[in-house]
Every structure is written in structure tokens, then in C-alpha cells.
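Discussion board: Methods & Data

I've been asked by a reviewer to show the raw model output for two of the constructs in my manuscript, not just the figures. I'm not sure how much to include, so I'm pasting the format here to get opinions. Each protein appears as its amino acid sequence followed by a line of C-alpha cells. Is this the kind of thing reviewers expect to see in a supplement, or should I convert it first? Here is construct A:
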Amino acid sequence: GAVAVETAAPSTCRDDPAWPSRDPHGLGCAYYAGSDCAALFLFGYSVAEVAGLEASCPASCGACDVGFPAVGSAEGAECADDPEYRDRFGIACGSYAGTSCAFMGAIGFDKREVGELTSRCRRSCELTSRCR
């Protein structure tokens, strides 16, 4: 069956208080408030670090309305592709294996599309070390 992935609705969107333990610099979500979190690769963050930050700190990153996973989303979704996912071109998750999914904005994906891709194609986008 399909893997259920919840998205953070604006009324329930919240940052993960455990994020500082995973942040490459030990910083909390509030540190990133008002930043363009997707552009942090320019400052040396890896694709996985940027995607993790946006997924764990959606309120601070201003990503509550673009489809990043909600804190406490469906168990098992951390390292799974949604078999029902298709991008606007009809391309499934598996086609993105080995791709820097968080950087798809560089070829025309909007923020919502990048958020949906990185939240629904976690295995193909290799967004957690357990997925590699």
C-alpha cells in the first residue's frame, strides 16, 4: 500500500524541538527564522542537511504551506518513497535516485514542488542516513 505522509497544515505546523541534536552546528530552529533555508547549501550545508532542516523546522523556514512533513508524521515514512508520487511531468520517485532533490528549484521546480519531492521520495532522495 501507499505510505501515508502527513503535511504540516499552517494551524498545526511546528518546529521539532529535537532538531538541535541533528543540526550540523547544534543550532535550534529559531536560529533559522526568516532565513531562506533552501539556500543554505551556499554556506556549506549538504543536500540532506538542508532537506532535514526544512522538514524539521517548517515554521522557522516558512515552509508550513508547501508540503513538508509534519513533526511526528506517519511511522516508517522516514525512509520510504511514496509509490503514488508523480511530479508535474509524471515522473515517479525512483527516477530521482542519486539526484540532489533539494536543488530541483535550480531547474524550475517551485518551493512547493521541491517540498513535495523531498517529503514523498525520501529513499530516492537519500534524505536520511538509514535510507542510503
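Construct B, same format:
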Amino acid sequence: REGQVTVLRDLNELELEVPTCHMSCTGTTRLVLFAGLFLQAPHSAVAFRGFLPVDNAHEGVYCSRWFYGSPAHRYGLCATHCIVAINDEPTPDLDAVVSVVSKLEDGQFVRIKTVSLCDKNAVFTLKCDYHYWPTVD
């Protein structure tokens, strides 16, 4: 869907068609803990910054927080990133993340592809530690 917007630019009125999207105002409804990361669907504050999964450019789950001393912390993965793939398997939502990480074994190394809020891609490798940092949905 698109909406029509009238803007004033250089003292001229312009009629623009802008894409719209559905945004929930219920806040966080589901949280997944993996390797010490709090993972959730991108919330409204992230959307207001213009970081929504549009045209698969930023599809993924949002890392909202991490625990000090966790595998994520030890290997440099931090909050305010979207995880877009784990071991080259796309993670467009939390169900995909749970599906991928449920196949991982304790002590296994895993590659995590991320996109930051500044639109920078990065890949992190971390070692799963399910004894102290189990995955919780």
C-alpha cells in the first residue's frame, strides 16, 4: 500500500507517493535468549529510526540487549544489530532463529551475519555454550 503526501520543497508543493507498512503498537510480545543475546522483532523505536525490514534489505531479528560474560559478549556481538542469517541460513523472524539454533550443539562454532542501525554488515563467529547460556524462547 502507498499513501499520498504533500511536501513543501524549495518553496514548491510536491505530491509524493510513499510506501506504508503495518506497525504494531503492542510492544515486545516475544523474546528469545540465544548465546546471551535478547532477540526480538524490531520494535517501534527501531522503526522510527527508519530501520524496518523493507524489501528484504533489513529483514531479521533485533538484538535489544546482551549479558556481560555471555558468548555474544566474549565474541564481540552486541545490541542494536539485526541478525539476518545464522550459518548462512536466513533468519527473517524469531521462528527461523529458533529453528536454526535448535540444530546447533553445545561447543559448536556458529557464524552470525548482522546489519547495524547504521546499515553496516558484519559477520561474527561465536562458540555455543548451552551449559551456562541455553536458548530460551
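Answer (T.O., handling editor elsewhere):
This is acceptable in a supplement if you add a one-line summary per construct. For B, something like: The CA atoms of residues 60 and 92 lie 4 Å apart.
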